[in-house]
Write a structure and sequence with these properties.
Aspartate Aminotransferase, domain 1; 395 residues; alpha/beta; 13 helices; 40% helix; Aspartate Aminotransferase, domain 2; 7-stranded mixed β-sheet
């Protein structure tokens, strides 16, 4: 009898072996072991979902709407979303064939990549960027190509840098603005220049606009609404941030018919349909949530000013975020790398931030601090961070 035990690691696919572990996860693991921690780490609204939205979901359950919906999602929700996008940005999508309701924007991003990429196809994306972009690209069989962005250019993705990174294997440009982690936005002229590069080289564009409603300076520009971009764009969004619905897991994909059909195929086989009660909640969010969105954005803007001014007063140079709810202070004045800074800050002052290196090589030297926490909590965190920097500043 063969008693040699198998090594489980040898069964793991090469593709999954190439996927790096999350640079955020270990900080959340540490967080659970330390008391009295002020967390600026989790990218989640501190608001609870508004009552009309919750009530719509409860009522749907009470009347027995607990079954699968269409693979595309409830038609009523798709119609409301199409009207919503046209009202906000003037973009038109056929709710019957060009909108898919997904289980969160994370699923939307995953299935869009899987629908577009063949093995070895390259995806160009700003660095730093959202932590899931690289691993999701690898899991879809693509190659992730980071394009550096810098604070001196407001962390905008510049068209000339994108064009310089294009090779014969380039398939798509991935945009994530307003940005997690930097809070950067892209103006219309910036996006027009990116669009011209996409047109010139016949590239697809995946535009993740989850934070579109959280824009504090200027107006958000929807990429697919730009001239000539509708036919090459897969637009992604969701309900989690604007309506404080993170736990409801509801997002969407909007794309021209043939692209939407390909995305729907992946969704159909891996998810079937998004949660039904969440879809009824989303209808209520579109119908009744605008006053809440306005109130929340106004409050986030107040917190934005507090945290940026606070970091600067401490002596940490901080780019002014124009969207989302993240600040990205430069911590290099302490002489520590971003991981060391984050670990020591958590251990010594019990404040949790995320090291910038978790978001790409060009995030090194920064940390991400989420200001979706309460105003008083941010004040206390800044006091603790100030003490820590004062002890460790190396000018």
């Amino acid at each position: 009898m063969n008693t040699v035990s198998a090594s489980p690691e040898r069964f793991i696919s090469r593709r999954m072996q190439s996927v790096p572990p999350s640079g955020i996860r270990k900080f959340f693991d540490l967080l659970s072991t330390i008391e009295d921690v002020i967390s600026l780490g989790v990218g989640e609204p501190d608001y609870t979902t508004p009552e009309p939205i919750c009530r719509a979901a409860i009522e749907s359950i009470e009347r027995g709407d607990t079954h699968y919906t269409s693979n595309y999602g409830l038609l009523e929700l798709r119609e409301k979303l199409a009207e919503h996008l046209f009202r906000l940005y003037g973009v038109r999508y056929d709710p019957r064939t060009e909108i898919i309701i997904t289980s969160g924007s994370s699923e939307a991003f995953d299935i869009a990549l899987r629908a577009l990429l063949d093995p070895g196809d390259e995806v160009l994306c700003a660095d730093p960027c959202y932590v899931a972009y690289l691993p999701a690209t690898l899991m879809a069989g693509g190659n992730f190509v980071p394009v550096p962005t810098f604070a001196c250019n407001d962390f905008r993705l510049l068209a000339e840098d994108v064009e310089a990174a294009i090779t014969p294997r380039t398939k798509a440009i991935l945009l994530g603005y307003p940005s997690n982690p930097t809070g950067a936005t892209m103006g219309r002229e910036d996006l027009l220049a990116i669009g011209e590069v996409a047109r010139k080289h016949d590239l697809a564009v995946i535009s993740d606009e989850l934070y579109d409603r959280m824009t504090y300076v200027g107006q958000h520009t929807c990429f697919s609404g730009l001239p000539g971009m509708h036919g090459r764009t897969v637009l992604l969004g969701g309900f989690s941030k604007a309506y404080a619905m993170t736990g409801w897991r509801l997002g969407w994909v909007a794309a021209p018919g043939p692209l939407a059909e390909a995305v729907m195929k992946v969704h159909q086989y891996v998810m079937m349909s998004a949660p039904t009660a969440s879809q009824y909640a989303a209808i209520a969010a579109i119908e009744h949530g605008e006053a809440f969105v306005s109130e929340m954005v106004t409050e986030y803007d107040r917190r934005r000013r507090l945290i940026v001014d606070g970091f600067r007063a401490i002596g940490l140079p901080t780019f002014e975020p124009k969207g989302a709810f993240y600040a990205f202070p430069d911590v290099s004045v302490t002489g520590m790398d971003s991981v060391t800074f984050s670990e020591r800050l958590l251990a010594e002052e019990r404040v949790a931030v995320v090291p910038g290196s978790a978001f790409g090589a060009h995030g090194e030297g920064y940390v991400r601090a989420c200001y979706a926490s309460g105003y008083e909590q941010i004040e206390r965190a800044l006091e603790r961070i100030g003490r820590f920097v004062q002890r460790n500043r190396h000018d």
